[in-house]
Design goal:
The complex is a heterodimer. Chain A has 8 helices and 12 strands. Chain A has helices spanning 2-24, 76-89, 104-107, 126-145, 216-226, 250-268, 273-279, 291-306; strands at residues 31-34, 37-40, 58-62, 67-70, 94-98, 119-123, 159-161, 164-168, 173-178, 188-192, 197-205, 233-238. Chain A has one domain (25-248): Ribonuclease Z/Hydroxyacylglutathione hydrolase-like (Metallo-beta-lactamase, Chain A), CATH 3.60.15. A 7-stranded mixed sheet of chain A has the order 1-2-3-4-5-6-7, with no helix packed on it. Chain B is 17% helix and 38% strand. Chain B has helices at 2-22, 26-37, 152-158, 193-196, and strands spanning 42-44, 49-52, 63-69, 79-86, 93-99, 108-112, 118-126, 131-138, 162-165, 176-182, 205-212, 215-222, 231-236, 242-250, 255-262. Chain B is globular, with a radius of gyration of 21 Å. Classes of the chains: A alpha/beta, B alpha+beta. Chains A and B meet through helix 4, helix 7 and helix 8 of A and helix 3 and helix 4 of B.
């Protein structure tokens, strides 16, 4: 009798501990953009020591047997909060973490999802890009993000996508497509067939200036193909969910095309990169958030790409 | 009054702290100066060369740097060498450019990688051995930018392609501007091998030699701080028609060459 009571008591206390732990688990706001499809909005900010790099749109898709995470966040803590949020919403286990590309705001939540039964998915070039860049990202993480990242935070993909891959989440199919060099040289997009939602991540920027870290001409080519898809909505890597496809693409395509034309003509006129950085594309200022932070970087990359044209 | 002084000294202290945290010369003073110019005196002056660099590196992988000379190259007095150093880079030595009187002007422009907040300094060595230094502070870029070429496959595909770009008309017996473009990925080899277990050693252009009609115009020793697809602008003086010729070699011992016919 005494023994049973003790058992009950200890059970009660352990239950209490579990509950209180559950209560203290930090979660964040997610929007349900379609049944089983959730997204956390990233604000238009540069990564800094206040936001710790948690600035991108991240989310997840819930099937009958599996959850797929769509980008893990900008730091391990954001990854953990995303994981907590998923676990609060569903009991379905997380099977996949899809990394849309190498940039820190999309991959540095990875560490918090590591575990049995979780597979990381990336473009065939993702491992190489991580290999080339991560030493630099880690080295500057404390100064830039106020978070000390370590080699533990570099999670290489278990599944590398060369063309495309279909994931069955249980009654829900995701098509993961690897793109040619565009925003970066390792971009993936994800099509959720059941909700007709195209998760573009940083292949599409809305409001936030598009950032080129791959190939301008390659990006325009991929966008042309993507614009042919019949979908109900698209989710950009930065900016709100957009319903009107491919009209939602227009500001970005206009900006990229303008850059292509202006920089190409400057190269033809024999202008140097320093001049182009100052002069090209300034008419687009005011139309985009973070224009001052990224436009000159874009011109720099575009110039270096286009000077090999002839 | 005392309060005011306290406040002022607080601000001065704060300012000094901020300045010393960002703009700092210590790596140069304590290590690099002795490493590259042991026992030699270097004057800081603006009368021989000037350096132009953006205050903020827009892209860590590609920061345009331009060095302009303030004297003409003559047989009696000329700039023999310009050494470019980025204090805070993992490998501070970026490049060394050797000029001759035939260069006309010891100007050189290139694109470099800047990993961190750092001074970029150019040290000119005159033909009499005198050393003169200029420097610019460059703020590193933030965000997703990394000192890595953006499209590695494209760079590999073009590997070894070179071209000269010159204004359509050349002037004889005066300095003419030329631009040399070299397609090379210039891979840093500074990766996290313990994580990926993929070994990719540094692979970059290490020598560039430009001649006009067989006479050296610009000879450069370059290191990993030079951006992918190295790009150099410099001057040469053609007396008459002739060939501008570039020879480039990389750390794998591959050599590439290109010739451009100049008709003044």
């Amino acid at each position: 009798m005494k023994y049973t009571m003790l058992l009950c008591l200890s059970l009660f206390f352990s239950l209490f501990t579990v509950l209180s732990q559950a209560q203290t688990k930090e979660t964040f706001e997610v929007q349900k953009i379609a049944p089983g499809l959730y997204f956390h909005f990233g604000h238009h900010e540069l990564p800094n020591r206040e936001n710790h790099g948690g600035i991108a749109n991240i989310g997840f898709v819930v099937g009958k047997s599996c959850v797929a995470v769509l980008d893990s966040g900008g730091n391990p803590q954001q990854g953990l909060v995303l994981k907590n949020t998923i676990e609060k919403i569903t009991d379905v286990p997380i099977c996949y973490v899809i990394n849309s590309h190498v940039h820190p705001d999309h991959v540095f939540g990875n560490r918090s999802f590591k575990g049995k039964g979780v597979q990381f998915i990336g473009h065939k070039n993702l491992a190489r890009a991580l290999q080339l860049r991560s030493a630099f990202y880690l080295q500057r993480s404390e100064e830039q993000l106020g978070v000390k990242l370590t080699p533990q935070d570099i999670v290489l993909p278990d599944i590398m996508v060369a063309d495309s891959l279909t994931l069955d989440l249980g009654g829900r199919l995701l098509t993961v497509t690897a793109h040619g060099s565009a925003h970066t040289d390792n971009d993936l997009s994800v099509l959720d067939k059941s909700s007709q939602t195209l998760w573009l991540s940083d292949l599409l920027f809305v409001e936030h200036l598009p950032v080129i870290d791959g190939s301008l001409k390659g990006w325009l080519k991929e966008l042309k193909e993507l614009s042919l898809l019949k979908v109900k909505r698209v989710v950009p890597g930065h900016g709100p969910v957009m319903g009107d496809w491919p009209a939602a693409l227009k500001p970005q395509v206009d900006y990229l095309t303008m850059l292509l034309k202006e920089v190409r003509s400057m190269i033809k006129q024999g202008k140097f990169i320093e001049q182009a950085i100052v002069e090209a594309g300034q008419t687009a200022a005011g139309r985009w958030a973070l224009f001052d932070a990224f436009h000159k970087k874009n011109v720099t990359l575009v110039f270096a790409e286009l000077e090999w044209e002839d | 009054m005392k309060m005011v002084r306290v406040i002022i000294s607080f601000w001065v202290l704060l300012f000094v702290n901020v300045v010393s945290a960002g703009v700092d010369d210590t790596v140069w003073q304590n290590e690099l100066k002795a490493q590259f110019f042991a026992g030699r005196s270097i004057s800081e002056a603006e009368n021989i060369i000037a350096i132009e660099a953006p205050y903020r590196a827009e892209d860590a992988a590609l920061v345009p740097i331009r060095i302009t000379s303030k004297i003409n190259q003559t047989n009696d007095k000329y700039i023999k060498r310009i050494t470019l150093i980025v204090d805070k880079n993992p490998i501070p030595f970026a490049a060394e450019f050797n000029f001759t009187p035939l260069s006309g002007k010891a100007d050189v422009a290139m694109r470099i990688r800047v990993n961190s907040y750092s001074y970029v300094r150019a040290i000119a060595e005159m033909n009499d051995g005198q050393l003169i230094m200029v420097k610019k502070f460059v703020k590193a870029s933030g965000g997703c930018s990394a000192p890595i070429g953006a499209d590695l496959d494209a760079a590999m595909k073009r590997l070894g392609r070179m071209k000269f770009k010159l204004p359509s008309t050349a002037q004889s017996n005066e300095p003419n501007l030329a631009q040399l473009l070299i397609s090379h990925p210039n891979i840093t080899g500074m990766q996290m091998d313990q994580v990926t277990r993929i070994i990719r050693p540094a692979y970059y252009v290490e020598k560039v030699k430009v001649t006009f009609d067989g006479q050296p115009v610009l000879t450069a020793k370059t290191d990993i701080a030079i951006s992918a697809d190295p790009n150099f602008r410099f001057y040469f003086v053609p007396q008459s028609a002739g060939d501008l010729h570039a020879e480039v070699s990389d750390t794998d011992g591959k050599t590439f060459s290109q010739t451009y016919r100049v008709e003044p």
